[in-house]
Specification:
Blueprint: E1 6-10, H1 14-25, E2 29-36, E3 49-56, E4 59-65, E5 78-82, H2 85-96, E6 101-102, E7 107-109, E8 115-120, H3 123-127, H4 132-143, H5 150-158
Parallel strand pairs: 1-4, 5-8
Antiparallel strand pairs: 2-3, 3-4, 6-7, 7-8
Helix pairs in contact: 4-5
Amino acid sequence: MSSLSTCLCFDYEAEDAVAFYAAVFGDDCRVGSFTRYGENEIGGAAGSMRTVSFTLFGQPCLAVNGGPHFAFNDSVSFIVHCDTQADIDRLWAALTADGGQPVRCGWLKDKFGLPWQIVPRQLGEWMQDADPARAQRVMQAVLGMVKLDLATLKQVYEQD
């Protein structure tokens, strides 16, 4: 059977990034094995970190020190579905700390430039509601926010 995992290419911060994600996500992030560059190997000094494997919310990932040739962009992001506003607030604060940047509509970039979406778990259901007016109200509310506000979105969704 086939499987899927995510590879994230960092400049030379793979080890720091995985440690950061482990601190932010706690038990939802498990650090696995790593590899180091060998003697005379192109890409890094002998003994320096080449790759770090980890799982994030049960999904396998690989962080690679790929050098300055790679950069994250907004075409791919991780979406974290949160159950409470406290979860949204905590993750938002942690991921935007130390140089991370809020974007809009629940999007942010962490200090390594990796895009994230921190959203209420119900958001997808609300935006796909059978009542197009309801779904549109939610979408308009999202477009007006930076960090998403669960109570406001719920209120907009439930209004008649």
